[in-house]
ABC transporter ATP-binding protein (Ornithinibacillus xuwenensis), 229 residues
Amino acid sequence: MIEVKELSKKFGRRNVLKGVSFTANKGEITCLIGINGVGKTTILNAIMALTPVNGGEILIDGERIHKGSYEKIAFIPDAITMLPQMRIKDAMQFMADFYQSWNQKRANDMLKFFKLDLNDKISTLSKGNTAKVNMLLGLAMDVDYILMDEPFSGIDIFSREQIAEVFTSHLVEDRGVIITTHEINDIEHLIDKAVLLDEGVVLKEFNAEEVRETEGKSVIDVMREVYQA
Ligand SMILES: Nc1ncnc2c1ncn2[C@@H]1O[C@H](COP(=O)(O)OP(=O)(O)OP(=O)(O)O)[C@@H](O)[C@H]1O
């Protein structure tokens, strides 16, 4: 489990995170939801220790996060970090050379799943295919937790559907996934837990399945109630 406890972060004098707490379980998809600028990326960056925080703590499987914890987590940023002149196979080779947790078989499965060509250059890919390569590079790692920043942002409906399908496949099974998004239509039905954020605080954290079953409400219904209250 990833436990985020009372996380606070300031940029200059601005309090971007004001005591954010939530948990994300293994084998579940947890979605951090909130409008642009609410602090979603900052939370992922804090978990990855890419930004210093002003307070709070993060536990992974009960342990305070430390250098070794990062063997358990892969981070998929909202834009691909590979050089545009690389071919897909070069990017995969780079990951294989750099990360012990790289799993070539899983990468090959994803190539097939997304119908990508190893020889294509990243600079020539459509936005949708670039997003798919970005996702492949993270999901191919043998890690317990995957953080994804806005995986659906700015890509066409068909690519979004294909990417959403990944979440119901064996490629994410048994792993803990944290996704950030400001619009959840594509993955509403896939989410196990939703964390609704606003102005640096968690307004509500809930189990989506439970709310569907006990209250007959979708995540979007709850969002309407919470954000329009
Ligand atoms: N390095 C930085 N220096 C100053 N302010 C920053 C920095 N990074 C982020 N911010 C500010 O912190 C706030 C939260 O940013 P963050 O990127 O976490 O939001 P977000 O919810 O992920 O938004 P988006 O959906 O647009 O990605 C924003 O107002 C942003 O301008």
Q: What stands out?
A: Residues 11, 16, 34, 36-42, 182 surround adenosine-5'-triphosphate (CB under 6 Å). The chain has a mean pLDDT of 92. The chain has one domain: 2-227. Residues 127-139 form the longest helix (13 residues).
